[in-house]
UniProtKB/TrEMBL annotation:
PANTHER family: L-ASCORBATE OXIDASE (PTHR11709:SF218), MULTI-COPPER OXIDASE (PTHR11709)
Keyword Transmembrane: no
Organism from which the protein derives: Gossypium tomentosum (Hawaiian cotton)
CDD domains to which the protein is assigned, alphabetical: CuRO_3_AAO
Name of the protein in its database record: L-ascorbate oxidase
Domain Plastocyanin-like: 45-156, 174-334, 441-562
One Pfam family recorded for the sequence: Cu-oxidase_3
Domain of life: Eukaryota
């Protein structure tokens, strides 16, 4: 395994300790040799002009690139990222998506929940342990910066001597994204405006940072004649070189701002083996459906005609987006020329409004035999989250149980730990909605909601069930897919269903035998998804829709658990709200 862009040697004052470390002296843990390393990264976040889909715009980069550097580590390693904010006029924070932050809840990277933002010109040090092997992500968690290009992958391997329950020859990483030409500021201003201005469908789909916008469709002449250049090397298609007969592990992730996607490699089957860091009972797909925040590993064998190349495609599902071209890449059979186009047209995508295959994939994802973490047989608390679109004082908002989420000025973790009860609403949000009388399939006559920054306080070590209930939006006949992501935890996915959740009968259908554990899960149109997790990680944790505009518009909540067990907060996470003046770099 090759590790790049990092320093593996820890800072040790003692030459003896350093000498022993270099010799590979290991600590014995549970009878097996385990060597945990420290992996250091130095990043500068700044704006650069890039053309990921051939149209030049300002993009947030890490050390000049987007996607950012891949963090590569082994289980139980410590990651240290020294992040300098070079945005000049903009704050920043980075969330380590899928990393549970056990013992370090203040480094979860969620501005307003676990830390104050990183100010322009300052350097912030994140330090945490990657405690479980798998495929994870990192991305901005301040405003809507994620969709401006601030994202990347975290690949965590097993300790030396351990093996996975499947074999492959090569390991590759692909991040899927959608891409907008308007800045995040323009989009946020429209979402907050009266009248409401929706962000619309994306202009392009990117496969690992590369897409192709049709420059001839630009309707507004540009002062810069070169602003859209189809020959720009930045927008050369993503190419994956494959040796005939070899098997590839593709770690495929989605960090879309809006879109649900299908992914396929022309003429090749994909065997799903991992989801969100957990092994999956293998199953074969031609189209892999992904929702924002999800990660998968699939095995692909290069077993087709080696004299030609094949298309890699991503397409939008769940929304009608006729003007968004597919994301295109090339699966190149060595030694064919990488620039040789496949002789066929790209394969047709699944029907965008057919939910059946997407629901079937959700049902198919089970924990792999031999790697099953059995869930508790019953829960201590059940919370039902009705996903609705509402209005508040003329603004369009997304809500949970008719309550739209708003971040306080002082981060929750600091306020809870320091008992600053006056900085957020002490009234907890509701645990449910009017189940008997609410019709999920109609536009409600009363569309008004309230806004709150209250939290759900969970008893430490309790078992909590979450029922995500989808409903009609404020547009007739429209129920959107919402991918929900939980910080600080994995949860068991107990089941999916269509229509309104029946609290008396549907729990009898839960999968308590081999449910997969995940950190991100979709709730399908007019359907429900049931989750179970243990509130056993002290801290304050966001749970929210991973669509950028939806979370910005209030579709999220915060859970607080075991606050008395949280250690002393580093002063580096302070400096805003009631903590002004307490910041120490």
């Amino acid at each position: 395994m090759i590790f790049s862009n990092m320093v593996l040697i820890p800072k040790c004052k003692s030459r003896v300790i350093l000498f022993l470390w270099l010799l590979g002296i290991t600590a014995l843990l549970n009878g097996s040799a385990v060597e945990a390393r420290i992996r250091r990264y130095k990043w500068e976040v700044k704006y650069d002009y890039k053309s990921p889909d051939c149209l030049k715009k300002l993009v947030i980069t890490i050390n000049g690139g987007t996607p950012g550097p891949t963090i590569t580590a082994q289980q139980n390693d410590t990651i240290i990222v020294e992040l300098t904010n070079g945005l000049l006029t903009e704050n920043v924070a980075i969330h380590w998506h899928g990393i549970r932050q056990i013992g370090t809840p203040w480094f979860d990277g969620t501005e307003g929940v676990t830390q104050c933002p990183i100010l322009p010109g300052t350097t912030f040090k994140y330090q945490f342990v990657v405690d479980r092997a798998g495929t994870y992500l990192y991305h901005a968690h301040y405003g809507m910066q994620r969709e401006a290009g601030l994202y990347g992958s975290i690949i965590v391997g097993l300790p030396d001597g351990k093996s996975e329950p499947f074999t492959y020859d090569y390991d590759r990483n692909i991040i899927l994204n959608d891409w907008y030409h308007k800045s995040t500021y323009e989009q946020a201003a429209g979402l907050s405006a009266i009248p409401f201005q929706w962000v619309g469908e994306p202009q392009s789909l990117l496969i690992h940072g590369r897409g192709k916008f049709n420059c001839s469709t630009l309707t507004t002449p540009s002062l810069d004649a070169g602003i859209c250049n189809a020959t720009n090397p930045d927008c050369e298609p993503f190419r994956l070189i494959a040796v005939p007969g070899k098997t590839y592990r593709l770690r495929i992730s989605s960090l879309t701002a809006l879109s649900a996607l299908s992914f396929q490699i022309e003429g090749h089957n994909m065997t799903v083996v991992e989801a969100d860091g957990h092994y999956v009972e293998p199953f074969v797909v031609q189209n892999l459906f992904l929702y924002s925040g999800e990660t998968y590993s699939v095995l692909v064998k290069a077993d087709q005609d080696p004299t030609r190349n094949y298309w890699i495609t991503s397409n939008i599902v769940g929304r009608s987006a006729p003007n968004t071209p597919p994301g295109l890449g090339v699966f190149v059979y060595y030694p064919n020329h990488p620039r040789r186009s496949p002789p066929t047209t790209p394969p047709p995508p699944p029907l965008w409004n057919n939910t059946d295959p997407r629901l079937a994939q959700s049902h198919a994802i089970k924990a792999r035999q031999g790697y099953i973490h059995t869930p508790p047989s019953r829960s201590d608390r059940v919370i039902v989250f009705l996903n609705t679109q509402n209005t508040i004082n003329g603004n369009v908002r997304w809500s949970v149980n008719n309550v739209s989420f708003a971040l306080p000025h002082t981060p929750y973790l600091i306020a809870l730990k320091e008992n600053l009860t006056h900085v957020f609403d002490q009234t907890p949000p509701p645990d449910g909605y009017d189940f008997q009388n609410y019709d999920i399939r109609i536009v409600q006559e009363n569309r008004n909601a309230t806004s709150s920054n209250g939290v759900y306080r969970l008893n430490f070590n309790s078992t909590v069930d979450i029922i995500l209930q989808n409903a009609n939006s404020m547009s007739l006949g429209t129920s959107e897919t919402h991918p929900w992501h939980l910080h600080g935890h994995d949860f068991w996915v107990l089941g999916y269903g269509e229509g309104k959740f029946d609290m008396f009968n549907d729990p009898k259908k839960y999968n308590l035998v081999n449910p997969i554990m995940k950190n991100t899960v979709p709730v399908h149109p007019y359907g429900w998804t049931a989750l179970r997790f243990r509130a056993a990680n002290p801290g304050a944790w966001a749970f929210h829709c991973h669509i950028e505009s939806h979370f910005y518009m209030g579709m999220g909540v915060v859970f607080a658990e075991g606050i008395d067990k949280v250690g002393k907060l580093p002063s580096s996470v302070m400096g805003c709200g009631e903590t002004q003046g307490l910041y120490r770099p």
